[in-house]
Amino acid sequence: MTILLSARQVSKQFTGLLAVNQVDVDVAAGSVHGIIGPNGAGKTTFFNLVSGLLPPTSGTLTLDGHEITGAAPYERTRLGVARTFQNIRMFSDMTVVENVMTGMHTRLESSGLAALLRLPAFRREERAAKAKAMELLEFVRLADKAGLRSGDLSYGDQRRLEIARALAGNPRLLLLDEPAAGMNPTETRDLAALLRQVARRDITLLLVEHNMGFVMDLCDRITVLNFGRKIAEGTAREVRDDPAVIEAYLGTKVAERLAKAHGA
Ligand SMILES: Nc1ncnc2c1ncn2[C@@H]1O[C@H](COP(=O)(O)OP(=O)(O)OP(=O)(O)O)[C@@H](O)[C@H]1O
Ligand SMILES: [Mg+2]
């Protein structure tokens, strides 16, 4: 088993709060890996450390054996790390297809002057970029909405648009922060099918989700955080049956769902 992403003793201290506390995680190449835990457990903070939005207080992160702990977010993008956000971030006034094109980090090659004068080389590149963006929209089933203003899309469509934009950078590792949030059951089922297809494209998925059915169904391996610490890790069945996990979720809706999964 090849490890694509490895976190070793990674911590993030905010004033008076250890949001991520000495966490070790290994994400196997080609796997779908979930991170779960109650609200405030440190899941998004961990994503911010992996994507480079925040520097860790201590610990190391490696991608494919190369240390990326101090690398800037754009360097990590170039190395193949892409993400979506818990609170959708996109250019609402741009069209759907334009938003996907912003995700292509292989910047158009021709010079700014060529772009300004709209020389043939520039127009050729632009056409190729647009064709690729349309392919991705086809893939996430948004092709028919390519020309719409992104801000006018439904919530579920905006989440799929974010995925298309993240895929536009040809990532090896895609971080998804609550991709099913705000989706209805049908949209959630479609999203799971879509993410399985992404995984088949040799893209490793690391996802945070509160929807337990979704996580358990999709993930090969799950890491459970609570108050910044890793409290459990394993297959869906292993973490579901882990007393520390049940304890962490006690009093939450998830605990009820876990109990149901146990046939209680
Ligand atoms: N920039 C910040 N400055 C200070 N504290 C922060 C910052 N970001 C997060 N926190 C705190 O760190 C803890 C972990 O937050 P984080 O957003 O990582 O949790 P989470 O597991 O993603 O929760 P949720 O499921 O609600 O999204 C919380 O107590 C949060 O208030
Ligand atoms: Mg979060």
Q: Residue-averaged pLDDT, rounded?
A: 92
Q: Termini, distance in Å? A: 36 Å
The CATH homologous superfamily of the largest domain is termed: P-loop containing nucleotide triphosphate hydrolases
Main sheet makeup: 6 strands, mixed
Identify the CATH class of the largest domain: Alpha Beta
Number of discrete domains: 2
State Rg.
Answer: 19 Å
Bound molecules: adenosine-5'-triphosphate, magnesium ion
Second CATH tier, the architecture of the largest domain: 3-Layer(aba) Sandwich
Overview of this protein structure:
The structure is a single chain. With 264 residues, the protein is α/β, with parallel strands linked by helices. It has two domains: 1-80 and 171-264, 3-Layer(aba) Sandwich (Rossmann fold); 92-168, no CATH class. Helix content is 40%, strand content 24%. The strands form two sheets. Strands 6-7-8-3-9-10 form a six-stranded mixed sheet, with helices on both faces. A four-stranded antiparallel sheet has the order 2-1-4-5, covered by helices on one side. Helix 5 packs across helix 6. It is globular. The two termini are 36 Å apart. Bound molecules: adenosine-5'-triphosphate and magnesium ion. Adenosine-5'-triphosphate (ATP) is lined by residues 14, 17, 19, 37, 39-45, 86.
